[in-house]
Amino acid sequence: MANAYPRDDQPTVQLRALSSRPPRAGTPPPAPREEAPGEGTASRVSPAAAFRRFWPLTRGDRGLLVLVCGCAMLAALAGTAGILLFGRLTDTALAAGSVGAFWGPAAAWLAAAVLGAVVGYAGNTTAAWLAERFVMRLRERVFSHVLKQPPHFFQRHRHGDLVERLTGDVEAIEHMAVTGVVQAVAAVFGVLFYGIAALWLRWDLALATFLLAPLFWVAARRFSGRLRAVSRQERVADGAITSVVEEALGNVALTQAYNRQRAEEKRLRREARAWMRASVGGARMNEAYEQLVEVIETLCVLAVIGLGAWEISADRMSLGQLLSFAAFIGYLYPPVRSLGQLGLTVSAATAGADRLLDVLDAPPAVTDPAGPSCAGPAPRRAHGRLDVQNVTFTYPGTPTPALSGVSFGARPGELVVITGPSGAGKSTLAALLPRFYDPDAGAVRLDGTPLSALPLAHLRENVALLSQRPLVLHDTVRENIACGRPGATDEEVAAAARAADAHDFVSALPEGYDTVIAPHTTRLSGGQLQRIAIARAILRDAPVLVLDEPTTGLDALTAHRVVAPLRRLMAGRTTLVITHDLLLARDADQVLVLDKGRVAEAGTHSRLLTGGGLYARLWALDAEGRRATAPGDAVSRVRA
Ligand SMILES: Nc1ncnc2c1ncn2[C@@H]1O[C@H](COP(=O)(O)OP(=O)(O)OP(=O)(O)O)[C@@H](O)[C@H]1O
């Protein structure tokens, strides 16, 4: 969303030797994104602490930063020389009416302008490169950190808000760490050179005009707070608009099915109105500030001209001196303004830093084990023996444990069916196996080694997860399958697709395996996507498989097409199937019935059935449901 304020995206080096209008200082940079509701608005990091946290990202580029600062210095120097030469030209060539006196100062002025242009170009383009590199690095770091977050992190942060943090807040921090530094250096050199030159020309006049400088500071102070407030409101609305659009597009089928288009449009309009109000308010405030500064500048120039006229009338100053002096003052105020706004830039960036640190400091739920195990040679493929011992787990911020004292084991190649009422903790147990979470107490072991002692990459190569909603990458069908085992050949991909009963429908697509699919694609049905996910899992060839409701949400016929490939996938692997559909339980080596986070019953299907407990009741309910759908229940028929 465009910001209403003119943006100073790139650090600029002042270089024009003399222009019809003095360069203006940049307006305040965009304020950072507002905190998401409920996250609090108080800054937790000081500007210095925020700077220290992000400054290390400039490592490797600091030599270039020094070069940019050097360019800024040379540009200010060239500007100073140009103004002095302009004064000389006025006095020698113009006032005296001598063409001969024109060439010398004109050539020197041109040389200064060319030098200014060259260093300005070099400085500005390098600064732009450094700024974008910083943004790129920071964004990559935040993105990589976000990708390590546990599932509950994404439930607590709206996706739109995370997108805003990865874009707007990252840029706000860049304004402090790179652009801010370059602008500060450029402004300091500008103030120094133009100020010294003005003092050198007429120290008394210079001091008189310097007295007016605090007016800029007062104006900046008066407006900065309000500007920041409306800018923040704009960012809040910005984030909300992104979230509304993203949520509506993500749930477009639901929106249409429940005729929620109007409601969604209303939601968007509400946020867009808030954004518009803030945007217009910001534009008004910004314009008022700019115009006030213009008036102050005019006041300063008039004061100089007034004093100059008095000095010329008393023969204490030449016209050339006065014009040079006025030019210096014109050039001097923008860097003064720029320095005044630096505080604003930094405090705005600090709020962005706050939001980003909120994400960066969120600890990943799991980390690789410390020590040499990760650096050493990759451990061999696991056999697939699983031991879950007395595991207890509570989701962060929730009062009751989702799992309490859960224990069971599975030998390589065994099939364990995990069932139980809704909310019993089945999916939570599944999430512990690829280590999305670590248990608070107890241990999960693979071939006798605690999962926390295995390198994460190795563990996830050995434990394949197939969830109810298949993962779809925005890529070709081939890549969607091959990501199960990077480097797989086309033949291996096709063989996996055949085993998953996907080859025929993939081959029938207009571009076959090269057909591009995307999340929420309508090109493939739910069952077809699930078969692509099965092909991926077959290619991965992990010894442990976790299937979380793999056929839920599919109609009976589609589920039937999925069951056969699933069986091929499960063959020879330790498989944990989380399901409410108990037909598979008859084939299981072990059935685990969870209730309220505890193992209520465990054993074989027939033993549990004769026990007459929770499992028997669940089976009876399931059988009743099957009878009701018996004529069309293809899965039942296939399995029977
Ligand atoms: N991210 C989360 N944060 C907090 N609590 C959660 C989270 N995910 C699940 N829970 C809670 O943990 C408990 C177990 O949930 P889980 O999803 O494991 O149950 P389930 O047996 O898989 O249910 P279902 O069969 O409906 O999928 C529930 O009380 C649930 O509300």
From TrEMBL:
Read off the PROSITE patterns from this record: ABC_TM1F (PS50929), ABC_TRANSPORTER_1 (PS00211), ABC_TRANSPORTER_2 (PS50893)
Q: Give every ABC transmembrane type-1 domain span.
A: 66-348
Main localization of the protein described in the UniProt heading: membrane
Transmembrane parts of this sequence: 63-86, 106-131, 175-197, 203-220, 292-310
Q: Which CDD domains match?
A: ABC_6TM_exporter_like
Q: Is ATP-binding among this UniProt entry's keywords? A: yes
Highest taxon of source: Bacteria
Q: Where is the composition biased (Basic and acidic residues)?
A: 1-10
Keyword terms: ATP-binding, Membrane, Nucleotide-binding, Transmembrane, Transmembrane helix
Provide the protein name. Answer: ABC transporter transmembrane domain-containing protein
Protein species of origin: Streptomyces tremellae
Organism lineage? Bacteria, Bacillati, Actinomycetota, Actinomycetes, Kitasatosporales
